Structure to design on (451 residues):
């Protein structure tokens, strides 16, 4: 939460909170091994919105995902017309073209420059929420959202879990989900999930400084005994080092590429499915990896995927290119032909389209003063600077190379100073990349850097 912003009171954060829900919040916060929770958040769902989300979850569970291999989804035309009628950015383009492929593509940079023209006129401003993403492409985003949109994520996670035989059961008096982070700075909070009987939800940071004692991390997780644990490969690598005895029914890996070796270690340790979910802050959960399907199976009934070449031309199934999205469930941010910067080919499995050979955002750790830190800590160190594009590489000798586009080298001294606060004086060099095009933002030549 930004400095100077009022902290919402309990009634605003939890409009439908019952005594049982309040008891869960107290348990999460007041357990003797609880971490230092740095923030406050909540579901913010009104009573009628809870019922809306329940119906949405049912509809998603029953829906068919996909479209004919030689055609388009039947909802696409109506979605485009609505976007051109209600979204200022698209409206200024004139009338929708007759041919879908004549629509211009959009990039993360366009959203990063100004998100407001992409928000429909029909969205109730008083109910809007927003959050900032760190990003891996050098374009941090301010995402427009809504409490109902945030609650809808669970529908797609449930769909993914059901694919692997897991149907969520935890309700009142139980902890449903723990979200893991492992960063020097991390947004942490507790909440409850109204559609699951106010089961508990906790976002925790496994970084040792966030706890009264490092051993409390395992004690707390075991006390919560969550049904599902979600995180990224870096936080899961840390989890493997803790002597926990909890038995979650599934682990969800989001935000970063999950390598097979780490997946195998997690499955062996916890004896449950480990789902690798391809998710973007702009559109939520996109797909879940299924080895039998040969890739990441799409999850959203109203999300159309194209694969484009560098010139923006559609590629045939089986050809590799940039994943480009239209649709989504975030009614605050309708997207038309949004180029994600991630790459795959598209195939058609028995029950849904599949992204094959997905190459997305890869997790990287950096060695700083003898300790591993998350690449997100690097982003945090630079976020106060108006740098639209950068990349960071750690050489085998430990020296960090910060690459800034030629147009932004004036910020180089400040950027280097910010990184030297992490890596030490003299530990950071500046460089100019050969191209300003999208590059892999975080790389390292050190052994162990890739969790």
């Amino acid at each position: 939460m930004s400095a100077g912003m009022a902290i919402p009171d309990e009634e605003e954060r939890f409009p439908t909170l019952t005594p049982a829900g309040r008891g869960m919040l107290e348990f999460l916060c007041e357990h003797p091994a609880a971490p230092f929770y740095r923030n406050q958040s909540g579901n913010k769902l009104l009573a009628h919105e809870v019922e809306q989300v329940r119906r949405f979850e049912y509809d998603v569970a029953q829906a068919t995902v996909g479209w004919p291999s030689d055609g388009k989804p039947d909802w696409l035309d109506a979605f485009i017309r609505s976007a051109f009628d209600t979204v200022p950015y698209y409206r200024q383009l004139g009338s929708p073209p007759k041919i879908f492929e004549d629509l211009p593509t959009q990039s993360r940079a366009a959203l990063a420059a100004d998100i407001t023209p992409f928000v429909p006129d029909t969205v109730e401003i008083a109910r809007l929420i927003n959050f900032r993403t760190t990003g891996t492409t050098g374009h941090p985003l301010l995402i427009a959202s809504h409490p109902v949109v945030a609650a809808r994520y669970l529908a797609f996670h449930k769909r993914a879990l059901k694919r692997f035989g897991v149907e969520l059961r935890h309700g009142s008096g139980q902890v449903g989900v723990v979200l893991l982070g492992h960063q020097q700075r991390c947004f942490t909070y507790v909440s409850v999930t109204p559609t699951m009987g106010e089961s508990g939800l906790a976002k925790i940071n496994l970084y040792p400084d966030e706890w009264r004692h490092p051993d409390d991390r395992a004690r707390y997780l075991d006390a919560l005994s969550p049904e599902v644990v979600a995180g990224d490969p870096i936080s899961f690598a840390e989890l493997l080092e803790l002597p926990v005895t909890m038995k979650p029914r599934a682990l969800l890996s989001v935000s970063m590429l999950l390598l097979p070796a780490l997946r195998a270690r997690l499955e062996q340790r916890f004896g449950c499915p480990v789902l690798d979910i391809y998710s973007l802050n702009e559109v939520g959960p996109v797909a879940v990896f299924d080895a039998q399907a040969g890739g990441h199976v799409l999850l959203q009934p109203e999300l159309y995927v194209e694969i484009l070449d560098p010139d923006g031309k559609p590629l045939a199934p089986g050809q590799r290119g940039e994943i480009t999205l239209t649709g989504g469930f975030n009614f605050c941010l309708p997207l038309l032909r949004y180029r994600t910067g991630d790459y795959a080919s598209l195939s058609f499995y028995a029950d849904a389209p599949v992204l094959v050979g997905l190459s997305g955002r890869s997790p990287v750790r950096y060695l700083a003063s003898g300790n591993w830190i998350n690449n997100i800590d690097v982003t945090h160190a630079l976020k106060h600077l108006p740098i639209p594009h950068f990349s960071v590489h750690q050489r085998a000798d430990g020296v960090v190379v910060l690459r800034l586009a030629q147009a932004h080298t004036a910020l180089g001294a400040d950027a280097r100073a910010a990184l030297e606060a992490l890596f030490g004086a003299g530990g950071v060099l500046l460089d100019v990349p050969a191209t300003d095009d999208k590059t892999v933002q975080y790389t390292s030549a050190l052994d162990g850097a890739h969790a």
Q: What stands out?
A: The chain has twelve helices and 20 strands. The first strand starts at residue 129 and ends at 133. Residues 365-444 form a domain with the GMP Synthetase; Chain A, domain 3 fold (CATH 3.30.300.30).
